[in-house]
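Why should sequence recovery work at all? Because a backbone constrains its sequence more than one might expect. Tight turns favour small or flexible residues, buried strands favour hydrophobic ones, and helices have their own preferences. The token representation captures these environments compactly. In the example below, the structure is given first.
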């Protein structure tokens, strides 16, 4: 098993993944792609369209092109690995496939969602370039990257059948408004960003099942270790989706009757955002060793040893056995996070949009940045800002330019917030201190520039003297229109980066 297969399948039907559209599913329905069960083959089963197959199968293509399928991930996240499973498709599998992904705000209603996915402005990232496939095989692809995605587009060349599509990755849920209230939530649940980091044993089934939504469906749908023949106990380390003060714990041994653990305990630790425990970590008790029963839901409240917010827990079972679900009920402690990017991640959407608009006046840039939340760290946010900006159209670049005052002026064409005006003033402080006749010369050069290029002169003016700005303006007057547009766009990128850094540090 590849390492990435230990991560959740973001395209799991069980987690809410849905097929939004496909261009063709004549022989077998597109929805089969996301089934959680393994594909099966029934020798003599046919439909009125041909052989019954447990997968997505398009008709034989007689024209150039490819077939495609759009999938909404059940949980948004960073994609680490993909499996294109062609089980039982032998003479009818696609020769090749590719995979793209995007991040859009999750709209209400499939029509609006489909419109957003097919809009020319939506940026798709290629995760798998056109690659060969094998028939009746689990074709694995490791993915690298830090983007958060909400949807994928599978292309098959030229046609054929795929049994299952597995998209494994790190869950990055949308910033939860619930974190601004006192509402208690299960911080270990996969939808809230809980993640298994390590376990002592997972011989029969994976510890990731502990964090799945709903009640367990059977022993296969829990965490079960092998029989321990020596001293010690089994354990699993879980990073909570958010730090929080734990008030209640649920340990569910449903379906485990002759193989449930005798008892359990929980240790906890509070680490800085982005850090994980190692061998030197000193854990503190959260739940003392407590007896368990077979096939039962246990709730521990009075037994909890309160110790403020925690970020990770270690669930211990004595000596071994099976547990179906673990719930860590707590009040999120957003204020305990010490990173500016964490503060930004949990801003309500309107406030986050306003903060981004102060940094860059392109509404499309703001929309894509919001869709990319949450960011794991400031560097990831800056990288996303640069990449999104560089992928925008001329129209969006010009819209951002109009949110700046001319060099030497105070008012922009588009309305600025007080914070944006303050930033503009500080960035142009070198010009503000210049003599009146110097500013007049600069204003004349500005007018000549606008007549030549059709937009205001954009420069990252922080730390530059008025003489340096004048020199650069005169030099750039010699550019052609296309070169100058890209030069101005690069200056805007620098301005945006500086403002984002200031925003996160404030």
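From this structural description, the recovered sequence reads:
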């Amino acid at each position: 098993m590849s390492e990435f297969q230990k991560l959740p399948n973001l395209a799991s039907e069980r987690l809410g993944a849905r097929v939004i559209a496909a261009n063709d599913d004549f022989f077998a329905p597109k929805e089969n792609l996301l089934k959680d069960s393994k594909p099966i083959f029934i020798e003599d089963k046919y439909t009125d369209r041909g052989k019954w197959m447990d997968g997505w199968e398009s008709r034989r293509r007689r024209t150039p092109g490819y077939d495609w399928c759009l999938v909404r991930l059940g949980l948004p996240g960073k994609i680490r690995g993909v499996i294109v499973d062609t089980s039982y498709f032998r003479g009818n599998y696609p020769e090749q496939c590719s995979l793209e992904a995007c991040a859009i705000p999750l709209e209400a209603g499939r029509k609006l969602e489909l419109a957003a996915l097919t809009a020319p402005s939506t940026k798709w990232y290629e995760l798998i370039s056109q690659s060969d496939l094998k028939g009746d095989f689990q074709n694995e692809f490791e993915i690298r990257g830090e983007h958060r995605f909400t949807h994928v587009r599978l292309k098959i060349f030229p046609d054929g059948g795929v049994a299952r599509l597995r998209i494994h990755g790190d869950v990055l849920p949308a910033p939860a408004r619930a974190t601004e209230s006192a509402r208690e939530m299960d911080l270990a649940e996969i939808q809230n960003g809980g993640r298994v980091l390590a376990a002592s044993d997972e011989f029969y089934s994976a510890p990731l099942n502990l964090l799945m939504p709903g009640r367990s469906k059977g022993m296969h749908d829990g965490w079960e270790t092998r029989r321990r023949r020596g001293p010690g106990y089994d354990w699993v380390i879980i990073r909570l989706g958010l730090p929080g003060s734990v008030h209640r714990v649920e340990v569910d041994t449903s379906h485990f009757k002759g193989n449930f653990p005798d008892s359990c305990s929980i240790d906890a630790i509070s680490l800085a955002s982005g850090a994980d425990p190692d061998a030197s970590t000193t854990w503190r008790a959260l739940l003392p060793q407590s007896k368990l029963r077979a096939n039962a839901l246990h709730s521990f409240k009075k037994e909890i040893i309160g110790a403020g917010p925690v970020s990770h827990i270690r669930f211990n079972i004595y000596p071994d056995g099976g547990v179906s679900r673990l719930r860590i009920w707590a009040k999120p402690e957003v204020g305990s996070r010490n990173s500016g990017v964490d503060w930004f991640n949990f801003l309500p959407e309107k406030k986050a949009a306003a903060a981004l608009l102060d940094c860059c006046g392109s509404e499309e840039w703001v929309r894509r940045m919001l869709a990319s939340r949450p960011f794991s760290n400031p560097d990831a946010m800056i990288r996303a800002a640069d990449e999104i900006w560089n992928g925008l159209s001329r129209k969006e670049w010009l819209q951002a330019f109009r949110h700046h005052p001319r060099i030497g002026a105070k008012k922009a064409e588009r309305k600025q917030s007080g914070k944006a005006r303050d930033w503009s003033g500080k960035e142009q402080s070198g010009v503000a201190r210049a003599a009146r006749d110097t500013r007049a010369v600069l204003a004349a050069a500005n007018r000549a520039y606008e007549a030549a290029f059709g937009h205001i002169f954009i420069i990252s003016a922080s730390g530059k003297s008025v003489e340096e700005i004048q020199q650069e303006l005169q030099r750039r007057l010699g550019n052609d229109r296309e070169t100058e547009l890209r030069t101005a766009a690069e200056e805007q990128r620098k301005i945006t980066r500086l403002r984002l850094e200031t925003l996160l540090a404030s």
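A few observations help interpret the result. Residues 481-505 form the longest helix (25 residues).
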